[in-house]
Amino acid sequence: MTSLIYPPQWWITVPEICDALRVTPPEMANWASRGRAPAAETCPDGIQRIRRTEYDAWIDSMAEDTPESEGTDR
Question: Cβ contacts of residue 61 below 8 Å, gap of 6+?
Answer without folding.
Answer: none
